[in-house]
């Protein structure tokens, strides 16, 4: 049973929401790479776009903002600080939805079980920051299980006593959190783990008992190079192909990241929380402009969510054409500044 004080607070909250005015303007869900940044460089139009949305005199955003990216391998707080430093506007960790942010919702299932992470050296600590208690990464596991990845260079790794304890536990789940730094090592170790009972040294079986979650489904991403580079989704394609070839069965997994629904649901929650803070009804968003550069992720995800989402393509990253024939955006612009200007004009907010 709820206490009388809790019920009273809930009634007051409901009364406040029911009397709050509806929000009349647009909300924004920005992709990062290819829209605001290109590698380590800021796309020039990004400054103009964000400055038009941030009220410097009152130090607040003029509209609800979220940054929803298929990037990862860091905490939401660290990503927010990096954006703040590069874009010269304050970005808060509550505004960030990374490709692996939905993994936070898995805490009840795996908090006390062994987790194997794939990605950069920070991924294990990111998983621990989410509350998972027994985490080890593929680089450390390869060092502990000598000769398990014969071509991997892991001599520099210095496992902690806790790493050795986790390595003795059966792996319950694999989190692929960002791009693999060594495809050969990681595919080999995952093939061992996924074909075992969680102990990679034990006899192999073609029956998968270890859970697997991928975060970033993008095949390509833009950086400073003149052509897009392979992204995390390419590693998933390779792992699935090898697993199928070896076992004769399809790999079972769950996919997070755009265009999949969990990341958009989190983004909607972020925007509703900002509306509450701004004093508006949290359920009132006339339009959410999802501005991205990748039709199969940014446009497909926004279109799948339907109203009030509006898919917007910009030509500063992966996409360079008029519009995509398969994943067709509502509108296409040369850059993010033009996209934001269009959204503000549609809601009589441009100044």
* Overall geometry: elongated
CATH topology-level fold name of the largest domain: Rossmann fold
What's the number of helices?
Answer: 12
User: How many DSSP E strands?
Assistant: 17
From the alpha-carbon coordinates, what is the Rg to the nearest angstrom?
Answer: 22 Å
What series of H and E elements makes up the topology?
Answer: HEEEHEEEHEHEHEHHEHEEEHEHEHEEH
> Order of strands side by side in the largest beta sheet?
7-6-1-15-16-17
Distance between the termini: 51 Å
Taken as a percent bin, the fraction of beta residues is 15-25%
Can you tell me the CATH superfamily of the largest domain? Answer: HAD superfamily/HAD-like
Going by CATH, the architecture of the largest domain would be 3-Layer(aba) Sandwich
Helical fraction equals 25-40%
As an assembly, this protein is single chain
Largest sheet: 6 strands, parallel
Counted up, domains total 2
Q: Report the structural category.
A: alpha/beta
> What is the top-level CATH class of the largest domain?
Alpha Beta
Mean pLDDT: 92
Low-confidence stretches: none
GO biological process, one term: glycerophospholipid biosynthetic process
Protein name: Putative CDP-alcohol phosphatidyltransferase class-I family protein
GO molecular function: transferase activity
Keywords: Transferase
């Amino acid at each position: 049973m709820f206490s009388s004080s809790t019920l009273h607070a809930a009634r007051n909250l409901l009364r406040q929401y029911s009397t709050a005015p509806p929000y009349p303007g647009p909300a924004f869900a920005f992709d990062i790479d290819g829209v605001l940044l290109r590698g380590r460089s800021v796309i020039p139009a990004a400054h103009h776009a964000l400055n038009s949305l941030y009220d410097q005199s009152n130090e607040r955003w003029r509209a609800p903002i979220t940054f929803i990216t298929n990037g990862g391998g860091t905490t939401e707080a660290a990503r927010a600080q990096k954006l703040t430093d590069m874009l010269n506007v304050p970005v808060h960790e509550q505004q960030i939805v990374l490709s692996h942010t939905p993994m936070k919702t898995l805490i009840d299932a795996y908090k006390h079980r062994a987790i194997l992470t794939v990605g950069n050296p920070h991924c294990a600590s990111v998983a621990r920051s989410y509350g998972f208690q027994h985490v080890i990464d593929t680089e450390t596991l390869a060092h502990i299980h000598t000769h398990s990845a014969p071509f991997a260079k892991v001599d520099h790794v210095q496992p902690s006593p806790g790493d050795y304890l986790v390595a003795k536990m059966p792996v319950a789940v694999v989190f692929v959190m960002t791009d693999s730094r060594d495809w050969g090592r990681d595919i080999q170790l995952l093939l061992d783990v996924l074909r075992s009972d969680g102990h990679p040294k034990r006899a192999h079986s073609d029956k998968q008992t270890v859970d697997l979650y991928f975060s970033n489904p993008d095949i390509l991403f833009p950086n400073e190079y003149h052509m897009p580079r392979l992204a995390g989704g390419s590693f998933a394609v390779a792992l699935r192909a090898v697993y199928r070839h070896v076992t004769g069965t399809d790999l079972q997994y769950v996919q997070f990241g755009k265009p999949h629904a969990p990341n958009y649901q989190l983004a909607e929650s972020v925007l509703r929380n900002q509306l509450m803070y701004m004093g508006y009804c949290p359920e009132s968003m006339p339009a959410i402009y999802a501005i991205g550069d990748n039709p199969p992720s940014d446009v497909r995800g926004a279109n799948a969510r339907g109203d009030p989402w509006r898919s917007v393509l910009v030509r500063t990253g992966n996409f360079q054409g008029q519009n995509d024939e398969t994943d067709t955006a509502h509108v296409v612009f040369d850059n993010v500044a033009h996209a934001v200007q269009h959204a503000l004009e549609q809601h009589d907010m441009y100044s």
